[in-house]
Structures are given as C-alpha cells and as structure tokens.
C-alpha cells in the first residue's frame, strides 16, 4: 500500500461526481483507494495486476497536480507512459519571480503551454508551483527540456524552435504522436 498526499481542493476531482472517477480509477488500475478528505491523504492498495497497480499512485499524484482524470488515466495506455513534474518554485528566487516564471511557461493566453502539448504530444498542466507532464519518455523529455530552457531565461522563440525540431525528430522516427492531446485524431 502506498500513501499519496494531494491538495484538498483536488480531492473532489479525484472522487468525481457520486464517486464515479474514483471507481473508474479503481477498476482501470486495479487498485483500491482510501481517501481521507480531511487531510488530502490517499492510500492506494493494489488489488489486481501488480503492474497496473503500480500506476495507481501515479494517477492519483497526476490528478493532485492538476490533470483531469481522463489525462491521468492515459498512464495506463502503455507501460511506457510517464508522469513527471518540474518544480517551478525551485527555479524561482521569490514569490514575484515564481509568478513571472509561471507566466513564461503558460505564455500569452496559454499559448506556450499549448505549444508544448501540441509539439511534444504530451499532456501538460501548470498547477500551483509545478508543471506536470504525462507522455512517453521522449515526449516528457521534450517538455522538461523546453520548460527548463524557459526557466533559465531562454527566449520563447528559441524554445519554440527547439520543440518544433524535437517534434520533427519524433515524427521522423515514426514515433506515435498526436496533434492535440486528448482529441481523437
């Protein structure tokens, strides 16, 4: 059994309307969730396939970091799917700097975050002081590198060029990618 702590405001998302999301996660990941809504602690116990069960805590963590449940459940699509987080706070000197850094990652009207998703094929969420990503190792690495470039002060244009280059490499290698994460294209 593993314990995962998530923000209290994300507990409702994890449970879902009438417990629907929680039951779906339990069925798909073959785990049992014991959610303490008082302190945001979630006990994840594997009840079926141990390999699928390993993804249970990751799914809960991803929802806690701002992902919608359907994106978090993508972790079960393939054993190669990863969930990773970049700590924006660690790259910031103070609260104002963190706001600025988050703004750089989100971009005007969310365009930078959208491009990270579009060009990498990963799902990307900026929530609290973290940037979370779900995708294959190559997709996650592309987003992590782009985020680190932005946090290090690289111009947006250079980061977009980097992402386009990685997108073309992945496409050229015949890697599975899709234009808009979450869409059926």
UniProtKB/TrEMBL annotation:
The lineage of its organism: Archaea, Methanobacteriati, Methanobacteriota, Stenosarchaea group, Halobacteria. Keywords: RNA-binding. Residues 1-81, 82-152 form the K Homology domain. One of its GO terms (molecular function) is RNA binding. It comes from the Archaea. This is RNA-processing protein. InterPro entries: KH_dom, KH_dom_type_1, KH_dom_type_1_sf, KH_domain_protein_archaea, KH_PNO1_2nd. It comes from Natrarchaeobius chitinivorans. Pfam families: KH_1, KH_PNO1_2nd.
């Amino acid at each position: 059994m593993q314990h995962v702590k998530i923000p209290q405001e994300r507990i409702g998302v994890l449970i879902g309307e009438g417990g629907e999301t929680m039951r779906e996660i339990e069925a798909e990941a073959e785990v049992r969730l014991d959610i303490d809504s008082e302190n945001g602690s979630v006990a994840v116990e594997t009840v079926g396939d141990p390999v699928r069960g390993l993804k249970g805590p990751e799914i809960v963590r991803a929802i806690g970091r701002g992902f919608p449940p359907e994106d978090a459940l993508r972790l079960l699509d393939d054993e190669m799917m990863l969930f990773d987080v970049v700590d924006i706070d660690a790259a910031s000197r103070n609260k104002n700097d963190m706001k600025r850094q988050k703004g750089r990652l989100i971009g005007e009207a969310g365009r930078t975050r959208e491009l990270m998703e579009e060009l990498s094929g990963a799902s990307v969420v900026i929530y609290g002081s973290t940037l979370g990503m779900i995708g294959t190792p190559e997709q996650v690495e592309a987003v992590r590198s782009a985020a680190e470039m932005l946090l290090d002060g690289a111009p947006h244009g250079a980061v977009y060029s980097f992402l386009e280059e990685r997108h073309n490499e992945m496409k050229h290698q015949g890697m599975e990618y899709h234009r808009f994460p979450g869409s059926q294209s």
